[in-house]
Structure formats: C-alpha cells, structure tokens
Write a structure and sequence with these properties.
The radius of gyration is 21 Å and the shape is globular. It contains 17 helices and twelve strands. The longest helix has 16 residues. The C terminus is likely disordered. 33% of the residues lie in helices and 16% in strands. The chain has two domains: 88 residues, no CATH class; 320 residues, Aldolase class I (TIM Barrel, Alpha-Beta Barrel). The strands form two sheets. It has a nine-stranded mixed sheet with strand order 1-2-3-4-5-6-7-8-9. It is of the alpha/beta class and 436 residues long. Helix 4 runs antiparallel to helix 5. It binds pyridoxal-5'-phosphate and iron/sulfur cluster. The site of iron/sulfur cluster has 11 residues, from loops. Iron/sulfur cluster binds next to loops.
C-alpha cells in the first residue's frame, strides 16, 4: 500500500507534507504535534486557510464549553478549502458564525451525572451497569461532548471538575466490588487512549477479579481519530489484548467502544488498526452522535453504517446531541431523528443497524427515539418514560428552538418564558427540568 492509500488522503498536499511518513504514522508524534492553542492553529493554517476562518474559530472558542485539541491526522482529514461546511472541522473547531444561543433548558451537566455518583468518578444510574470515568483527557476534543463539564481544559465559559487519576480509583472499585448487581462496567472518561498501559492492566485485572462483573467496555475514540495508536503503541495495545484475553478465558467479555460520526473518518488506516484488533478477537462497537451539518442526512448515515460494517465495527447507537453549553447548532429535532432512523433501518444487516437514542435530560438514560409517550409539537417537547431508572417520572427532551415556529420560539426566549411554558403545559415537576 502506498502512503496515500493508508490515510485515505494525499498527505503530500496536506498541512504536514514536510514531516516524514514515519513521524506521521507514529502515535506519539501525532499527540505531541496536536493543535491545542489558537496560535498553533493559526501557524499551521497560515498558507492554507483564509485568516477569517481562524478568527471565526478564535471568537467561537470564547462561547463554548470545550477546549480544542486536534492532531495532524485529523487536521489533514479536514478539507480546508471548504472549511466552513466541512463535517470534520465542524465537530472539533467551533466557528462563531455557526453558533446559536443555548436552549433555555440547557445545562452544563445535562444528564445530571454528578447527581448519580455514589463514588468519585463513578456514575450508577441503571441497575446492573456503571460508568467509570477514569480520565478527563482525550486524544482530541469534540465540541459536542456531553461531559464537557469535566473533560478537556477550562474554557472562558466552563471551569472543569477535578481531574481524575489512577490514585482516585480505589473507592469506585470498592463500590463495584460491594454491589453484586453490577455486571457491566463502562470504562470511559475522557478516553483510555490517554491511560498508561500499566493502569489499563491494573484496572482491567481488578475489574475481572470481581466475580459479578461479566462485561467490560473500554471506551476510546482513538480507533477513529488516532488509529496509529493501535499500530505503533505496542505497550498500550498489548495491555488491552492482555485484559481481553484473560477476560475470554474467564468467559467475560472485554469490548472496545468507539466513536465515528462521519464516513470520511473510516480511512484505510482505520481498517489497518481494525485488522489488528479483529485478529486478536477484540470486538469494537460504535456510538455515533447525530450532529446537524455533520451527519444529519440519510446518505451520510447509511454510508457511515456500511463503512463501519466493512471494517468489522458494529454500529451500536446514534445518540441525539445532548443539551450542553454551545451545542445548540448541532441539535436535531426528534421527528427528524425518527425520519433518519427509518431511512437507515433496512439499508444493511439488522445487527449492523444502530439504535437511535435520546439520552433523556435529567438522567432518564437512553431511550429509543420513537418511544416517547408525550409530544408537544408547538414547543418541541418529547416525554420519555424510563422505568428501570425511575418508574414514576417522565423525562423530557427539547427540540432546538430554530425548528419551532416564530411565536413559540419567542415565548421560550422571553424572560421567565421557560417557567411559563412548563407550568402552563402542567407536565413538569421542577426537578425534571435541568436547571442552569
Ligand atoms: C450509557 C451509559 C451506560 C451504558 O448504557 P448501554 O445502553 O448499556 O450502552 C451505563 N451507565 C451510564 C450512566 C450511561 O450513561
Ligand atoms: S472523545 Fe468522547 S469524552 Fe473525549 S471529548 Fe470527544 S466526546 Fe468527549
């Protein structure tokens, strides 16, 4: 394979053409050369993108909750000639002109994860599974990140919660150990691409040692944004393989969960990484986020689904974009999500067809987008029940204001409008609505 065939784009025409192939394919070099400050972005793009793009991003960054971090591989995957509409750029580098005022029901921690935390770094919402947040850093930072309250560097708008570290895991492990109903542990963050191999092993073995833990998922976006991690970081890769193999011997599953949103991200280099994982018997599932201007059309979603299937990644979920600071422009209304789901279902194998999910604000958990029991089209409200979380409560999702008729939009935006609407509809207990 030629170098271009590996990447899926011609690097000689890219931003890092003067760097060697060996460097470019090395995970460490990618990390070290990641763009994390606007000045670096400006320098890298000096000859490629108009200055107006960089200044739009500089201004955009002042309004959002997520800092920037993008490695050379992803920087080159962006079509900088069409930066304004590019679906990769849009996910990671916010431009002021595309941002929209937040929905009045927006909250920094929209899923109320901090309210369902029995031990530091642990979210226990469903009866038999927990979310273990083991780090607050990632190889790249996504603008729509649900956990921007904790993940990434501080921004002008958001001071992040404490950074977790391996020293802080003991209490969470003890909680899992002493709760036999917990069968399933999602190891996430942040991203385990940023964990040391020794910590992956220590954590993986500690979890496998707990008899009632049957399933472990390691969450990492590196399959999509840093595939070289699986090809050049031998110590890290073998740590995952070691835990997965021991799991297999114990008849427990150790899977990798990853995060692709656009078909262009499924490059030949990703295939190479997947061949390695597949040959070690490690299954990978994908959790995509439905993002306006990135993947909110049937053709893109079907192509993404089919390309993932071809590299043996199972499309698991397509999430609605959560209501977090500075993400209103990404959000899609529930009826549109339903339309897209109908288009995707049937396009390929059923087991490779993702479930379209609304992660209900207020901590209701993941609900099938079609399953709402209450709907108000005028104000764009969908109500979901979630008996396994709380049988007595309805959880509400709010469509983006842009999609509502002008009158309803103005009512939402008026001072006190939110309370007036919710009270008039008589549907919400005050605590059901995420407060700012
Ligand atoms: C998403 C999530 C899980 C895992 O849910 P699945 O539907 O099994 O993928 C577990 N705990 C929390 C808090 C979550 O948000
Ligand atoms: S990789 Fe995941 S946790 Fe990290 S910024 Fe992106 S969405 Fe958030």
């Amino acid at each position: 394979m030629s170098f271009m065939d590996y990447l899926g784009f011609d690097r000689s025409a890219g931003l890092y053409a003067s760097n060697s192939q060996e460097d470019f394919l090395n995970h460490n070099w990618q990390d070290k050369n990641s763009v994390i400050r606007i000045e670096q972005l400006e320098a890298v793009l000096r000859d490629t993108a108009p200055a107006s793009i960089v200044s739009e991003i500089r201004d955009g960054l002042k309004k959002v909750g997520m800092s920037i971090r993008l490695n050379p591989y992803m920087m080159d995957l962006i079509d900088w000639r069409n930066a304004e509409t590019d679906p990769i750029r849009r996910q990671f580098l916010p431009m002021l002109s595309e941002l929209e005022p937040d929905h009045p029901c927006m909250s920094v921690d929209s899923l109320e994860e901090r309210n369902t935390s029995p031990a530091p770094n642990l979210v226990h919402r469903y009866p038999d599974k927990v979310l273990f947040l083991v780090t607050s850093v990632c190889p790249v930072y996504c603008q729509y990140c649900t956990r921007s309250y904790a993940v990434g560097q501080d921004t002008e708008k958001v001071r992040k919660d404490n950074v977790t570290s391996a020293n802080g895991w003991a209490a969470a492990l003890e909680y899992i150990r002493s709760n036999p109903t917990i069968e399933d542990v999602v190891v996430s963050g942040g991203d385990i691409a940023r964990l040391k191999p020794a910590n992956i092993k220590a954590l993986g073995h500690a979890l496998l040692d707990i008899e009632h833990v049957r399933r472990i998922r390691f969450a990492t976006k590196s399959v999509s944004v840093l595939p070289m991690k699986f090809l050049t970081d031998e110590a890290w890769f073998s740590a995952i393989v070691e835990v997965a193999q021991r799991g297999r011997q114990m008849f427990k599953s150790v899977f990798v969960h990853t995060h692709f949103n656009h078909p262009r991200e499924v490059t030949p280099l990703v295939e190479k990484a997947m061949r390695r994982l597949f040959s070690e018997g490690i299954h990978v599932r994908n959790q995509a986020v439905l993002l306006r201007g990135v993947n909110d059309d049937p053709e893109t979603l079907i192509e993404l689904t089919k390309k993932l299937g071809r590299v043996n990644i199972q499309p698991y979920y397509v999430y609605s974009c959560d209501m977090v600071l500075g993400t209103e422009h990404f959000r899609v209304r529930v009826p549109e999500m339903q339309r897209l789901e109908r288009e995707v279902r049937g396009a390929t194998a059923g087991f490779n067809t993702p479930l379209f999910i609304v992660d209900a604000p207020g901590g209701g958990g993941k609900r099938d987008v079609h399953s709402y029991e209450y709907r108000d089209d005028k104000y764009g409200i969908s109500g979901y029940r979630s008996p396994s979380v709380d049988p007595n409560r309805m959880f509400y999702h709010f469509d983006p204001l842009r999609e509502l008729e002008a009158g309803a939009r103005a009512e939402w935006r008026a001072p006190g409008g939110r309370e007036a609407i919710l009270q008039r509809l008589g549907i919400l207990r005050p605590e059901s609505v995420a407060a700012e």
